[in-house]
Q: What sequence folds into this?
């Protein structure tokens, strides 16, 4: 392989890693919920949630890369269904968060688990934008299967510490938000941000 070809290949990998980092670490439904979970439940109890986010999203990228993303072009009505389901579910999550008072609150007595967090990726508007954008923009290998594995693998490696940072930040804020009124105000603020994350699909 020529030096120029190697440099070009390395540049594509670096560009994709940068895309994965920026899209993973910036605010969105996953990070908002992980921050709130870190505050309400602490980091250790939030670990299944963040693992579900990272592994579930990597799986989503793999399936989109294998052709699932083209479903929206072949069947436009599926995007409308996704918009409705995502909107209803995120509104419900925001309501639960806004009306929660902490770990003692009966409405939020346990953090989101691994499987629920993994399944949430399929109604997460930001996750769809990230997955479709990555698979339609970056080609890391000429072989379809290897390309998909690379996309999903790099996203998984970059995404995990990125989302973990939000849970850690939430855990660090626990003692500052110990008072019920302050915690309630924080949860309401997180609920508003969660609703704001609907903009990518409502504005589409």
A:
């Amino acid at each position: 392989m020529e030096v120029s070809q190697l440099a070009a290949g390395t540049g594509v990998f670096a560009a994709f890693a940068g895309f994965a980092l920026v899209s993973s670490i910036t605010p969105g439904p996953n990070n908002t919920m992980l921050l709130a979970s870190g505050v309400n439940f602490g980091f250790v109890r939030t670990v299944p949630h963040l693992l579900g986010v990272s592994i579930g999203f990597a799986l989503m990228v793999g399936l989109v890369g294998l052709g699932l993303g083209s479903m929206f072009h072949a069947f436009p009505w599926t995007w409308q269904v996704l918009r409705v389901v995502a909107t209803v579910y995120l509104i419900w999550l925001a309501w639960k968060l806004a009306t929660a008072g902490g770990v003692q609150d009966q409405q939020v007595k346990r953090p989101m688990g691994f499987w629920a967090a993994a399944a949430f990726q399929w109604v997460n508007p930001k996750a769809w934008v990230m997955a479709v954008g990555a698979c339609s923009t970056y080609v890391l290998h000429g072989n379809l299967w290897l390309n998909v594995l690379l996309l999903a693998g790099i996203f998984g490696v970059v995404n995990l510490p990125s989302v973990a940072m939000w849970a850690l930040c939430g855990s660090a804020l626990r003692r500052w938000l110990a008072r019920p009124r302050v915690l309630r105000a924080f949860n309401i603020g997180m609920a508003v941000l969660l609703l704001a994350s609907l903009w990518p699909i409502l504005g589409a």
